[in-house]
Design a protein that fits this description.
Length: about 525
């Protein structure tokens, strides 16, 4: 009997030991990995941040810079903005993944992934700091290290960090051998990542040009194109190529019809484009429903609505002044290449429109301004300026053809006389030339997030006048911090506003020294 008991105990111990031997391996869920690679994190980082950029463009950037105006739910157009959760919450959430990409890649010796993490971090931070001002930076996304109440850094400190990170990223790219997977922006092309990093650096140095002389930094980039390559054409620029189906599907394409129709061509944009006889009008807007013109009409078939109208005024607005001809049928929708599937199931394209992080056209306008202001000695300001315009026209022709809108694409290129007219030709005083650069740059930045807003705050071009229903007298110069910042990090928040200024729409960020 004792022998039998001993055998039973030995059998139980054997079973228990066998079960315990590979317990951790057996109980791992293969569909929920505990260790995530950079290639798995990168697509979500890029997709989600770019979608946020597009959302900011649609709801705020296009409206505050008066490319579009709202005819319903007009709070954005009247500057009736409350505390703004995004991009703050969205980007800080994504920055945790960016931080993980950097750490994972650092441990694995994957310098290419490290560099991409630094570039995405820099791009996101520069959008956030331009919209809010001071932010958690040095102490940010370190909750695992016990930093639960991060201090806010001054914007100058943040920009110094961005410049250092982009410079380091340029130096890291290509110094390790791993192929980059999960890259839905540049498909693993390291040269294009380098060009984006250095082109973005030029934008940033220009952004700070009223606070710091950018001459040596900008010229150093241009002096060594082998080490510091920049965009050399539209094919280089940073823009998302959407797919027809999920997961990387154009977000506007899936919006509801009512959301799309709230936004219409603004009277400001209509006036500028018509005064220049600018054929980008046909890309940015559709003929009014009342005109019955189809895909493309005469200039008179395109009508804008003033910005900053109250809801009732906006819904009843009559471009002709005839009250019987008021309402949405008499006002142009945003261009068909941006249309949602619900708005136009037959003609809407899921792949024509892009979200552009930075364009070649923008870079050329930056270089034109830099040359005109004496920050750089390379190249010719007039050539850069013309290159910027031509790149913008070429871009819209290309995207229209991608969407099979050949009828519009055939007329979106201007005649030679466009460039010769007085308001376009690169002549006049320095101030007049800078105004022409600023105006053409503004046109080219349509649907480019909040970049046009940031550039307008720096330059004052073009003139933007608040509408009659605006709840504050001037165009906003920043976003208010999310309410959660006060609730969860009050001491740091109070220190930031004591240094920066009141948490309202009229406080200027550090680099904004203009009078507009």
């Amino acid at each position: 009997m004792n022998r039998f008991k001993i055998l039973c105990v030995l059998l139980v111990l054997t079973v228990v030991t066998s079960c315990d031997k590979d317990f951790e391996e057996i109980n791992k869920n293969p569909n929920s990995p505990e260790e995530v690679s950079s290639s798995l994190l990168l697509p979500t980082v890029i997709r989600s941040s770019v979608y946020e950029m597009g959302d900011l463009a649609w709801n705020y950037g296009n409206v505050v810079m008066q490319y579009t105006a709202k005819i319903q739910f007009t709070n954005e157009d009247r500057y009736n903005w409350g505390p703004q959760n995004d991009p703050y919450n969205q980007f800080f959430g994504l920055l945790r993944d960016v931080n993980n990409v950097y750490k994972i890649s650092d441990e694995a010796g994957e310098n290419n992934y490290k560099a991409i993490a630094l570039i995405m971090k820099s791009w996101m931070y520069h959008i956030m700091t331009d919209t809010y001002g001071d932010l958690p930076y040095t102490d940010a996304v370190q909750a695992k290290e016990g930093v639960n109440f991060p201090e806010f850094d001054a914007q100058e400190t943040i920009y110094n960090g961005i410049i250092a990170d982009l410079t380091e990223a340029n130096n890291l790219l290509g110094t390790s051998t791993e192929n980059v997977s999960g890259d839905i922006l540049f498909n693993g092309d390291l040269t294009r990542w380098k060009k984006f990093a250095n082109s973005l650096l030029l934008r940033i140095h220009m952004r700070l040009s009223d606070k710091k002389d950018p001459s040596s930094a900008m010229q150093a980039i241009l002096n060594d194109p082998a080490k510091f390559p920049i965009f050399t054409g539209n094919s280089d620029q940073a823009a998302i190529e959407f797919l027809a189906d999920a997961p990387n599907q154009q977000p506007l394409y899936t919006t509801r019809s009512g959301s799309f129709d709230e936004f219409r061509l603004s009277e400001k944009m209509e006036g500028v484009l018509k005064s220049l006889d600018d054929p980008r009008l046909y890309a940015f807007a559709q003929p009014t429903t009342d005109s019955d013109a189809g895909l493309i009409g005469d200039k008179a078939d395109y009508e804008g609505v003033p910005n900053g109208l109250a809801d009732e005024q906006a819904l009843q607005y009559a471009p002709s002044g005839d009250p019987a001809k008021g309402g949405s049928n008499f006002i142009s929708r945003v261009g068909i290449m941006y249309a949602c599937r619900a708005c136009n199931p037959e003609l809407a394209s899921p792949i024509a429109a892009q979200v552009v992080l930075m364009s070649y056209a923008e870079l050329q306008f930056i270089l034109a301004e830099a040359r005109e202001r004496g920050f750089i000695t390379s190249g010719d300001a007039a050539t850069y300026y013309t290159n910027g315009m031509e790149a913008s026209f070429d871009y819209y022709e290309t995207r229209l053809r991608v969407g099979r809108y050949d009828e519009i694409a055939d007329v979106v290129q201007p005649p030679v006389t466009y460039f010769q007219q007085a308001d376009v030709d690169y002549t006049g005083t320095t101030e007049e030339k800078l105004e022409k650069i600023g105006t053409q740059k503004w046109i080219s930045l349509f649907f480019n997030g909040v970049e046009a807003w940031a550039d307008w705050r720096r330059t004052g071009y073009p003139t933007i006048t608040p509408g009659p229903g605006a709840v504050i007298p001037n165009v906003p110069t920043r976003f208010q911090y999310p309410t959660g910042v006060q609730a969860l990090n009050l001491d740091s928040y109070q220190k930031a506003i004591a240094r920066q200024g009141a948490d309202n729409l009229a406080t200027k960020v550090w680099w904004d020294v203009s009078d507009n």
